[in-house]
Specification:
5-stranded antiparallel beta sheet; about 210 residues; elongated; 4-stranded mixed beta sheet; about 50% strand; Immunoglobulin-like; mainly beta
């Protein structure tokens, strides 16, 4: 007798998920029981969702569903289920998800508007509004920053992590509108760069690779 009530010595099964079966064999002398598990490996699925819209200078996380049996390959050679990108112009990416059962591919386009020098957030809408250019972005940790509408002024520079915690803080003098920050010892990921001047506050996304 099988756990699914079959009464033959064999049992054809076609589970959609990993399932265990038990069989009990009996005669006049007694009975014995054994079990077996059929592990179901899912057919790969790739779904990056709808296209995304960002402003130049922003970073965005692209990702698909994850499973322990999957391997991943992005068109930019990344091999994780997610991919942080910061395109300066509209670009497309594809991901191929594979396992022993096959593979599936999906694509996504990130539409970029504005210019890299435009601020993502500023609290001042008058002629003193700050804007910036940050390059390279993404970077290995060295970011060159050029600030518009400021010259030889003292500014406060802060870097915030994904939890909103300040992980870097410095006071700088933006000589000729330019300075750089060094976060090479930080973990990879997306951070917020907050620049405060007597005129305005500017917040930009930066990505440490």
């Amino acid at each position: 007798m099988w756990s699914n009530t079959k009464t033959t010595y064999y049992n054809f099964v076609a589970p959609s998920v990993t399932t265990a079966w038990t069989i009990t064999i009996s005669n006049v002398c007694g009975s014995a029981t054994d079990n077996i598990t059929v592990n179901v490996i899912p057919i790969p699925a790739a779904n990056l969702g709808a296209d995304k819209d960002i402003t130049a200078g922003q970073s965005v996380k692209l990702e698909t569903a994850t499973d322990a049996s999957y391997s991943y390959l992005w068109s930019n050679t990344k091999t994780t289920y997610y991919n942080f990108v910061a395109p300066s112009t509209t670009m497309s990416w594809t991901i191929t998800v594979s396992n022993v059962c096959g593979s599936a591919t999906d694509g996504i386009t990130v539409n970029v508007s504005g210019s890299p020098g435009s601020s993502l957030l500023s609290i001042n809408d008058n002629n003193n509004k700050l804007s910036s250019t940050i390059y390279p972005n993404p970077s290995d940790g060295i970011f060159n920053v050029t600030i518009n509408n400021i010259k030889n002024e003292n500014i406060k520079v802060e870097v915030l992590n994904s939890l909103g915690q300040i992980v870097f803080e410095d006071n700088k003098n933006a000589i000729n509108n330019k300075f750089y920050i060094d976060i090479r010892n930080f973990a990879k990921g997306i951070y917020q760069l907050r620049i405060t001047s007597p005129k305005d506050v500017l917040i930009r996304s930066i990505m440490k690779q």
